[in-house]
Design a protein that fits this description.
By secondary structure, the chain is of the alpha+beta class. Helices cover about 15% and strands about 30% of the residues. The chain contains six helices and 22 strands. Pfam families: NLPC_P60.
């Protein structure tokens, strides 16, 4: 892995790959993680190569999507960069964002402002609404970036042509092309909770990956963060921080799209799920990325879940 000479500690950079994985330390990466560490990460191959124990290795902290902003805080000669993910609040770890390590080759300092106006005067960014899409070198041309995920923001680069939309992508001087139906304007108004739930429901059966935050694999708080990111709303990365950033409700007042939080006595919150149906007495259901089942599932709260339920919150 070679270090981009333009990267400097103290300066911001952008993620240039569809999904970059954030690690607790360079030495924490395992042989099975090689596909995720490649200059062009192959997330499906990485996930397919892991057994169920490796899916929950705590060496993975989080993931960042194409165009996400980071602050570079350290660079190592072996090609690793320590960064703070500025779009993933984590107050207990760093007030600037979520800290961790990733390959410096996954970053660029090139411009691609997803909030800027395009040449056709469109002020709004685009956001990927498809579960996964690809960016091409030309309309219906060769694939340049496979595996671009739901919630990725893209800067418009002009009007659509024959069902394809040109966009700017970090690390690419020329516009790339995305199927027009895979992107929508980034909303400018706060979504209704049921709209966010509908996006999260599209990830049902997705594999559970500790630290995962993409439509290739995801964890419980990643599911909540990513579903709201699709609508331009930034939530903290971890479940306990999400609880502090949201409004508590009396149990029984929750509605679909609200959140359930779980903790064992005397310990911090360890799990979050999205309320999926109106509660009926003690009959509560949620959509969640389940550590035990290693999948995103919609389910009735089990006896253990009910015993550890510490509250319902609204965003």
């Amino acid at each position: 892995m070679g270090v981009d000479v333009e990267l400097q500690p103290g300066r911001e950079a952008l993620v240039r790959v569809p999904v970059a994985t954030l690690w607790s330390a360079p030495e924490a990466a395992r042989p099975v993680d090689r596909p995720a560490l490649a200059a062009a990460p192959d997330l499906p191959a990485w996930i397919a190569g892991m057994d169920t124990d490796q899916q929950v290795g705590e060496c993975v902290l989080s993931q960042l999507v194409l165009g996400e902003r980071v602050l570079v805080t350290d660079l190592r000669p072996d090609g690793w960069a320590h960064v703070v993910a500025m779009e993933q609040p984590a107050a207990k770890l760093d007030p600037r964002g979520y800290p961790g390590w990733l390959p410096a080759a996954h970053l660029t300092t090139g411009p691609a402002d997803p909030t800027g106006a395009g040449p056709d005067g469109a002020a709004a960014a685009l956001v990927v609404d498809a579960t996964v899409t690809t960016l091409h070198a030309a309309p219906d041309g060769p694939v340049t970036l496979p595996g671009v995920v739901l919630g990725t923001r893209l800067a418009p680069a002009g009007r659509a042509v024959d069902g394809w939309r040109p966009v700017h992508a970090p690390g690419h001087a020329d516009p790339l092309w995305v199927p027009e139906g895979d992107v929508v304007p980034l909303p400018t108004e706060r979504p209704e909770a049921k709209e966010v739930l509908a996006v999260a429901e599209r990830l049902r059966s997705l594999v559970y990956i500790w630290g995962g935050m993409s439509s290739h694999g995801i964890d419980c708080s990643g599911l909540v963060h990513l579903a709201w990111r699709r609508f331009g709303v930034t939530l903290p990365r971890d479940a306990d921080d999400q609880a502090r950033a949201t409004t508590p409700l009396a149990l029984g007042d929750e509605r679909p799209g609200d959140l359930y939080f779980f903790a064992r006595p005397g310990r911090r919150i360890h799990h979050v799920g999205i309320v999926s149906t109106e509660p009926h007495g003690d009959d509560r259901r949620m959509l969640n990325a389940c550590y035990l089942q290693r999948r995103v599932v919609e389910e009735r709260l089990s006896a253990d879940r009910e015993a550890t339920l510490v509250g319902a919150h609204r965003i």
